[in-house]
Amino acid sequence: MPPVSQLNVPNCCLTCWCPCITFGQIAEIVDKGNTPCGAHGAFYAIIETLTCCGCMYSCAYRTKMRSQYGLRESPCNDCLVHFFCERCALCQEYRELKHRGFDISIGWQGNMERQNYGVQTPPVAPGGMYR
């Protein structure tokens, strides 16, 4: 268990009672803003309501996130982690993105704007970089 200083109690509570919101936030970041948080969350909620297997949708995003950041798949496969401990897996993914510098609450676009805020990129010389 991580130290108490690393726990995000509000996120843990939100994920416990409404995992579709946390999943939507995670999926928007992992998808690099291609699909908004609300769409991911709604789709998750529909799958969970109809089949009780929203974990089958969310485990795909865990796999995608692991691939993007070079994370190990251990101690077991992503689908098993989500099937047996869905809410814990979502909290873990949320913490991983926070640790990587994302402010999950502002979405992908907000993070890109924050990252580029006030930073001017000099023009690239034709033919590549020079010393």
Automatic annotation (TrEMBL):
InterPro entries: PLAC_motif_containing (IPR006461). Pfam families: PLAC8. This is PLAC8 motif-containing protein. It comes from Artemisia annua.
